[in-house]
Structure formats: C-alpha cells, structure tokens
Amino acid sequence: MTDPTLLVADDHPLFRAALIQVLHERFPQFRALEAASAQTLGTALKEHPEIELVLLDLAMPGARGFSSLLHVRGEYPEIPVVVISSNEHPRVIRRAQQFGAAGFIPKSASAHDMGAAIQEVLDGELSFPHTDAESSQADAELAARLAQLTPQQFRVLMCLADGLLNKQIGHELGLAENTVKVHVTAILKKLECYSRTQAAVLVKSLEPESGI
C-alpha cells in the first residue's frame, strides 16, 4: 500500500525545500512530492492517485493566475488544494476561496502557522486568513462557466489563451486537428463567447489585479 502523499507545487526550489522540511517535521506519516510547473503538477497528479493534498503556488510556469487551481479542482475534485502565495492581497485570498481552494497560506507565515493551516485542511476544514474582501458575483459566474468544461476542454482553453492555432493545439495535446475544432466549438458555447479572442480575455481575468 502506497503511503499518503502531499504534493508541493512551487517553482522556487528553496521554498519547496523549506516547506517540505516543515511537512516532514509536522506530518511524518506523509511523504512529499514536488512539482515546479503546471505541466509537472498535472503529471504528478496523474501518476500518483495517493496524493491527498496539493499545496499550490499560483505563479508557476504554465499557469495563468488561478488557472492551475481551477484545473486541479475540475479534474480532481476529491483532492483539496491549499494556495500558498507571496501575494496576501485580500482580493487574492477571496478569489482563491471562490475558485475552490480549501485554504490559503501566505508565504510569510511561520512554520507553526503553516503546519496548523495544513492540519485544518487535512481534518476536512477550511483554512483562510481573515479578509474583508467581498465575494465577487463576476468570479462566481466565471467559476460556474469554467466548471462546465471537461479537463481536456480546459487544456484546450489554456492553449487558446496562449494564441495557439488549432493545428498547434493538436500537436501540443496529441489531438487530431478536427478534434480540437470540436473542442473549441464546445468551449465557446459553454463559456458564452463569440470568438477565440473573447475566450482568451476570459482566461486573462483569472490573473489577479495586483500580480501574484
């Protein structure tokens, strides 16, 4: 039987090492895996079904703001995600909550506070710093629209946002060009967008106003 696992997804090796040290001391019953990009995050989740919690930095290569959070929540809804970010702006915290995170830990938090927050989430609770930022109806509607996409459609949408043509998307994702066309049509319909450009603008709205 495989040991229960926590996944640390952050592109800064020193921070990953520090956080894994906290995990080893506080949660010796778990092993820790690492990911340094949106792509390696997806690979780790696919290859390790024993993962019980993802600790996610939003600013990794291949991610657009909250896109990795939404992707994990859409494809692996049973795995809680705790966002760990250097951006402690109240709107960032509130948006992480609205987009399905189970917790938010500022990178400035002490090792004790990080461990306590992670324990709360492992116990099935939510763990967020207090914030006065109000929930956004626009974010709620955006999350609901994106939730309609299949995992493959979400991947196609991220490629659309990067300005890739259907042939390029097919090469990137290993899909036939006609299959990509079908996905694009479905994506635009589900997101209520009339063009690829409008869909790309929608994805851009996932990026926080004040930078992560």
From TrEMBL:
The protein's name: Response regulator transcription factor
Any one GO molecular function term: DNA binding
Ranges of residues in domain Response regulatory: 5-122
DNA-binding is among the record's keywords: yes
Keywords, ordered alphabetically: DNA-binding, Phosphoprotein
An annotated GO BP: phosphorelay signal transduction system
PROSITE patterns: HTH_LUXR_1, HTH_LUXR_2, RESPONSE_REGULATORY
InterPro entries found in the cross-reference section: CheY-like_superfamily (IPR011006), EvgA-like (IPR051015), NreC/VraR/RcsB-like_REC (IPR058245), Sig_transdc_resp-reg_C-effctor (IPR016032), Sig_transdc_resp-reg_receiver (IPR001789), Tscrpt_reg_LuxR_C (IPR000792), WH-like_DNA-bd_sf (IPR036388)
Superkingdom per UniProt: Bacteria
Domain HTH luxR-type, first and last residues per copy: 142-207
Keyword match Phosphoprotein: yes
Modified residues annotated as 4-aspartylphosphate in this record: 57
